[in-house]
Amino acid sequence: MITARLPKLRRLFTWKLYAVLLAASFLTQWFRPGTAGHQADAVTSFMQVPIRTTAGDSGQPSVAVRIAYRSYGSPAAPALLLLHGSPGVAANFEHLVPMLTPYFHVIVPDLPGFGASDPWLPDYSIRAHARYMFELLDALKVDKVQVLGFSMGSGVALNMADISPERLTSITLYGGIGIQEGEGSGSYALEHLKYGLGYGFLVIGPELVPHFGLMGPRTLRHAFIRNFWDTDQRPLRQILERLRTPLLILHGVQDPLVHAWVAEEHHRIVPTSEYVLFNSSHFMLFDEGLTGTLANELLPFLRRHIDPAAPATPRTTRYAPTPVRPAQIARPTLTMLTLALATFAGEDLTCITAGELVSRGMMDLFVAVFGCMAGIFLGDVLLWAIGGTAGRGALRIGWIARRLPAARLQSAARWLDENTVRAVFTARFVPGLRLPTYLAAGIMGGRTLRLLVATAAAALVWTPLLVISVAFLGDTLIGPLRKYFGGGLSLVLAVLIGWCSLHLVTQLMTGAGRADLRLKLARLRRWEFWPMWLFYPPVLLWIAWLAIRHRSLGVVTTCNPGILHGGLVGESKFDILALSKSPRIVPTTRHDPADAGQATAAILHAVEAGGWGWPIILKPDVGQRGAGVKLARSHDDVAAYVAAAVGPVIAQPYHPGPFEAGVMYYRMPGEPHGRIFSITDKVFPFVTGDGRRSLESLILSHPRYRLQSATFFARHAANLSDVPGDGVVIRLAVAGNHCQGTLFRDGGYLITPALEAAVDELARSFQGFYFGRFDVRYSAVEAFKAGRDLAVIELNGATSESTNIYDPGWSLLRAYGVLFRQWSILFRVGAANRKAGARASTVGEVARDALRYYRGKKAASLAD
């Protein structure tokens, strides 16, 4: 009873501790000085002004707002008003002010809501701020003024020019906002959706966490978001079109916040404006060295316009290339939809690509994050819906069945049931868990609301983290790449490098991921486990050379005139074995699964009539690399196999062996005798139980089997958690194929004149056969070497490999040498048969049968 109450007590204690820490955090921030983000200092003065809004009078004449400001230089000098951005304070201009004070009376306020000014206002818009600035100037008895607006402050300056243009002698926009199209995505609705979400994450969210002020003052966060939320940039285009006040536009071509094409458009709208484009960023103002460059362009303009009657002198100075306006700015909704759909094909790749485009100024950050996030959330919900609507029938969908064995689904279901939130977040951050987690959730049902909320939260955490990280770090990576590879290729390379890096990092985050990475590195060191696309290019080049030398690639299809395409692809195992009546061939029957009941009955009849006994071997009539081989132990096994088969099935009695070999043979047409090219000695994988470890642990602890663990896990998925008894032997594979887990060794020691004579006699009994590999089983080594004990279970033609090359003791160069010699012999045999009148298959015929074969590879999932 006490034990059962412990989890409840722990949860209660946790909530109480959280409440205490949260209260302490509130109190700490409440009493901490300077909670507005900036303390008044010796040069700060204050002025009380009436409260103002976008429309003008707030209707509250008794309420005043305190504005903090700094004043430099002689009050008798021409006035210059400096307006900071959002978030910002008067101190942002500390490097620039000393360069201006010899010529101007410099006034630098903390805009209401920021710095030491009053933090709480009814309206934080740039229009309201413009009215506050006129109230401040009136209080200071300043009639005429030049205004420099930085970033968001530029919007305040433009509104001042719209409200009382006669009071402004000149306007300077540095890194300035303006036209609506230049605000992030360019859409007023999307931008205000962004600010609404931002208020939740940046203002409300931190207050639910005991951060003790480490996330910044709440007043600063509140004013920052409200400044953007209350502001409407749509009227700024009309203000610029009406503007007659002299205008200087200063901008950095590498500005990540207000892209340089926005300044270019402002200059186009106001043809009398002066325009300077620096090869710099948004933050020249904060770099003491770069501030001098800024002042060198600013001061001549300001001094020239001390006289209100001074004419405008349009001027354009470029220190950087002309900026290009991204096409997506005009279509933010379409861009987000495209990103969302792209995540269905590859989430991480889409997020990384979007982040790289943001870093290059080709896409808005909010558009990138929101589009990717929407796609990721919908993709997760879609997987959940597939599980919920199709139920366990979803496991019969090909791409799902290949990735999600039933045992893995059961494991995911248990994990999800124990802790939904942790499961969802783990699935989001750890590769390979998303599919089983959401399908299991859909199949299980229940906890829908909790699952959807957790899914949305995981997407909200993961997507911005990934996209923003790439956006801010992307230029670090893409810069050197652009230098050597140009613009387009550098982007592709950066995305690929980012994708690989992300997967490496996420794999290193968990023990299972690190183990999987070690496994992949171990397989990479062992060339016998390389994928075909990595191992075969040198062989393909050799085949191409041989085709040129023999003036035809189709010559390989004439190597065995008695076999379809010479055994290149699509050949029938049953038809090949039927070419010979040798007693050495294991009895074989073929059955059409179109009528599953009839085919099952026919196989059972063959078992009974032939006295085969159980178990028996079932496999597809057309197949390669051991795909679809099944050791059937009962009537039910046969029925299940036939029901799932997609093409003709062959049945054979099971030869107990225990030995199996692949005998590579060739005979030149016209010669009286053939030769054994090589023998592969096949060693089947076994594990022996110790009564303590599970089958999964036994496989993973074996130095070789762990390298093929994925194959064994898929085959024994239902039994991985079983603990075999001490001394109990578990056979991991039945098919004598390297891809299915069998160890191949060079069996050259088995070749004897007697065996070669027996194999040659056997091969000559197959009409039209000259080149290929016999898969044989035998009971005793010495009897096999004497040519007495060999039972043929399969014969393969042109695409047979001399599989002894996969001996772990062989070098890669030795393996290539054997394959090159094998293909040279194959072409010579085919050329001789072609000369004797054998017809080569056409490309169309081979392609047709290859397509039919690969469509039927679905049966490979049934392999033992």
Verbal overview:
The chain is of the alpha/beta class. Helices cover 47% and strands 13% of the residues. It contains 30 helices and 22 strands. The strands form five sheets. Strands 1-4-6-5-7-8-9-10-11 form a nine-stranded mixed beta sheet, sandwiched between helices. A five-stranded antiparallel beta sheet has the order 20-17-16-21-22. Strand 2 (52-53) and strand 3 (56-57) form a beta hairpin. The longest helix has 38 residues, at 448-485. The protein is elongated. The model is unreliable at 33-38 and 858-864 (pLDDT under 50).
In short, what is this structure?
The chain has about 850 residues and is an alpha/beta fold. The protein has 30 helices and 22 strands. Helix 18 packs across helix 19 (about 510-525).
Task: Give the secondary structure arrangement, pairings included.
Elements: H1 2-31, E1 44-50, E2 52-53, E3 56-57, E4 64-72, E5 79-83, H2 97-100, E6 105-109, H3 126-139, E7 145-150, H4 152-163, E8 168-174, H5 188-207, H6 218-230, H7 236-242, E9 247-252, H8 260-269, E10 274-278, H9 288-304, E11 315-318, H10 332-345, H11 347-359, H12 365-390, H13 398-401, H14 406-418, H15 420-429, H16 434-444, H17 448-485, H18 487-508, H19 511-525, H20 532-535, H21 537-549, H22 573-577, E12 589-591, H23 596-609, E13 616-620, E14 630-632, H24 635-644, E15 649-653, E16 659-666, E17 675-683, E18 686-688, H25 695-701, H26 709-715, E19 729-731, E20 743-746, H27 753-764, E21 771-778, H28 781-785, E22 791-796, H29 812-835, H30 843-855
Parallel strand pairs: 5-6, 5-7, 7-8, 8-9, 9-10, 10-11
Antiparallel strand pairs: 1-4, 2-3, 4-6, 12-15, 13-14, 13-15, 16-17, 16-21, 17-20, 18-19, 21-22
Helix pairs in contact: 3-4, 4-7, 5-6, 10-11, 10-12, 11-12, 11-17, 11-18, 12-16, 12-17, 14-15, 14-16, 15-16, 15-17, 17-18, 18-19, 21-29, 23-24
